[in-house]
Amino acid sequence: MAVILFGGAAVAGLTAIAPSTARQDPNTAMSKIAPWVLDRTANGEQAEYLVVLADQADLSGAEALGTKQEKGRFVRDALWNKAQQTQEPILKMLRDSGVEHRSFYIVNMILVKGDLGLAMSLAARPDVARIEGNPVIRNVQNPLPVENVSSQPVAPETVEPGISYVHAPQVWALGFTGQGIVVGGADTGYRWTHNALKNHYRGWNGTVADHNFNWHDSIHTGGGSCSPDHVEPCDDNGHGTHTMGTAVGDDGAGNQVGMAPGAKWIGCRNMDQGLAPYPVGGNPSQGDPSRAPDLTTNSWACPASEGCSAATLQMGVEAQLAAGINMVVAAENGGSGCSTVTDPPAIYEATYSVGALTTGTDSIAGFSSRGPVTSDGSNRIKPNISAPGTNTRSSYGSGDTVYANLSGTSMATPHVAGGTALLLCARPVLRHNVGMTRTVLNNSAFHINSSLCSSSGTFPNNVFGYGRLDVQAAVNTLLLMGGVSRKTHGGAGTFDVPLPLSGAPGVECRSSGGNHTLVFTFDNNVVSGTASVTSGTGTVSGSPSFSGNTMTVNLTGVTDVQKITVTLHGVTDTSSPPQTLADTAVSVNMLIGDTNGNKTVNASDIAQTKGKVGQAVTSMNFREDTNANGSISASDLAIVKSKVGNSVP
């Protein structure tokens, strides 16, 4: 798998170097060096540290690509090319000096072993952004005691209770068991020969094992009971075998321990995401993003006490998201206090963090960490969702027929990862769209309200997130595929401003007396539903209209300079039985004159509009026709000028 170090090294950021070699002053250089590095290199000692470069790879182009393979190829190539183009000046210096080092590309950085003097020299370069520690990452999240280990492959009387509680068997009954989906795991390793895992391993064809592109060991020294650089999956702890069993495990003899027994798995030991797996014994230049997983399950953390800062893993995590891979992570076992989701990767917006319920109930487990996230100053709500996480029975690493009962957010996480595999199997249109996948899981969850830990009293909240995973409800959810703000520009035609369903809202810059038309598209024909303005100034005018797979909502009385949110209620399709969209909110920034969509009306909007005066209105310039009358004229320019200084957050 792709080389982002775990166990031996942590990820830092996605950055690269500039060609300048001008030196920076010592104070500036010192400020770039993490305290962990300063501590480990005191008194002339040497340490491993990560030299993070300053020029960042631009991955924004991946968002517009339509398939997961296209996204993966774009992201892998952008990162690889950036590293190849920018690292050579530093690499040459290190080679010439005989310094031990290793180059990485998913995060544009170089692992170096050296003293403080070398760190200061590197930090003084303007092409270096910062120097991070190379800490050991804690794979097991404050591990709780193993509650029971059995070497007897005795089948339980029913499917494991956590699997049943989130309604996976009902999805299996529809014919969806995860077939065609690949789950990637990053953990303590995996006993691939375990009866519950072997037939689900992508590297096993029933006769011969091929570990190329399916396994990576990033442990290069030590390795516990598994030797370093192990050429086949090996688990020196048991934790990884357990988590993967909950995601996909089934021995075919009644031990139905996994959520998605029809899915395949690949894995790595103590390592981050696999954007482009490569052969065992190979190198990253052989990476093949087409072999990347659809999602990853991650039950580990990188705490500050072991060298990670809040930003250490962020860019690497965001690369996985850009590649269309959903990173499902444990929310940590630091509860029951508030703001105990403290460490990467659980703290990030780009990860889907999972809290633990007491299995069989909708009560939060005492150990499950709570938000809000304060370690990075974001005050972000975490976890995102919750799942069963106590007394979970699954495969274990000490034998091919051994099962164990464990508790932790580590156990809740693969419930959600396996549930995601079931959803992607049933609704393949989601495979390239992590944002929409998460929206479906969130909206279909059994919502659990809370006012604890600075929560609002409803959901999402800092205890349960959106609530308990309900994969049956997720699969049966009507999908909102997109939305636009639509206006007719006189005889020039009709033009749409896209409205993203996640992330920053779209910006509607056209004036029409407070009247706007929003058009929503679904994955099936729709026949009924309502809409309401749930935030902002404006009202829904009349009843929505339906045509094929679209729903049209007219708004009136909408004021300028605001974010307005429209929530769709009870939208129902023509399926038998009908599927209903969970209440779904879509926001729009209303900012007349913001022709470039940057949430501020300023001189650049004036210049942009002035340069288009006299042009025929087309799909390339319709935003400059701010009065939507079919021509770009002095009146449009006057509107923009009158709005200068307006902005939305």
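Above is the first protein from milestone M3; the second protein from the same milestone is given next.
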Amino acid sequence: MSPGILIVLVLLLFIWLPVSAAEIYGRVWVAPKGRPAVDATVTIDCDGASAVPARVDRYGRYRSPGVASKRNCRLSVEYQGKSSSRPIVVYSGTGSRSANIELRVSQNDIVLIRR
């Protein structure tokens, strides 16, 4: 086999390989009553490779597919016009990762507690 054909075959192999992506999902609720944080926004930043912000549904669930794999991701939450001051860190790995978050809301801040 000629070197040119071999190079083309190797390049085609790399083009057809799937791009490795992860998914982070979970529930977000407000302490102390445990009610869902409806319409909160979970933003995920994986070492600078940002994912699309995920909205929390009426059951408190969120899902963010297409997150960069094998990275330390910082999750922050915006809820009722307030933002969390400190993100929580989740390793994305490969495949799906669960990150459930409890919110402690004060007058000026939201504290995130991973559960």
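Note on the second protein: The two ends are 57 Å apart (CA to CA).
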